[in-house]
Amino acid sequence: PHAIFFNRGNHEMDEMNCRDGGFMHEVQRKYNGRVFRLFSKVFELWPIAAVLGGRVIILHGGIPRQRGVSLHLLRNVACRRQVPQDPRNDEDQLFFDCLWNDPHEGNGLATSSRGDGCVAFGRDICRAFLKAPIIAFWPPIEDRAASSPEKLTSSFIKNPYPQQAKLCLKF
Fold it and tell me: Buried (b) or exposed (e) across 19-48, using 16+ Cβ within 10 A?
C-alpha cells in the first residue's frame, strides 16, 4: 500500500494501556517510560473517525448516543488528549462513545457489558445514524444498492469478543 491510516480506539488510551500486563508494561520492559509517553502522545494525534471515499464513515467504537451527529461535530471534537473516563459534556460524551460503544440486537440504547458509561446501540439508532446527513455528499439511503440499503459492519483482526461476533450484523 501507498499509505496506512489509523483511527484511534479505546486501546490507544492510557486507561487501557496501563493495566497489568498491558502495552505500557511491554514498552517499559523493552524500552522505558519515556518511550511509552511518546506512544501516548502519538495516539492522541490519531483521529476518532475517518471517511472513506465520501461514502463510508469509520469509527473504532460505535455510533454515538447523541442524535443528529454530523461530520462537522466529529471533526471538531478536541481529541488531542486522553479520553475522558467520566464524560461531563456533549463533546466528551461524543469522544467517549466513538471509542467504546457497541451494537446490540434490539432497539434503543442498552447497558453495555463494557462498564460504566458505555452503551450498546440498537438497530433503530443505527438506521437513524445512517439516514442522517452525516456527510453532505453521501447519497440518500434509498439510493444505495437494493440488496443492502442499510448496513453496519464490524470487523476484528482478532476477535477477543466471541459474544459480539454475532453482532456483526447487517442492519
Answer: eeeebbeebeeeeeeeebeebbeebbebbb
- How would you classify residue 131: left for phi > 0, otherwise alpha for psi between -120 and 50, otherwise beta? alpha
pLDDT in tens, 49-100: 888 877 778 888 888 998 888 888 888 999 999 999 889 999 999 999 999 9
Which residues participate in catalysis according to the annotation? Answer: 11
Strands (E), the chain: 49-52, 56-59, 102-103, 109-111, 119-121
Give Cβ neighbours of residue 135 (< 8 Å, ≥ 6 apart): 51, 54, 55, 57, 71
CA atoms within 13 A on the CB side of 60: 19
pLDDT tens for 108-154 read 999 988 888 899 998 888 888 877 655 443 333 333 333 344 555 55
Residue 58's DSSP bridge partners are 50
Secondary-structure percent of the chain, ordered helix, strand, coil, rounded to 5: 35, 10, 55
Answer yes or no: are the C-beta atoms of 1 and 43 closer than 8 Å: no
* First vs last C-alpha separation in the chain: 31
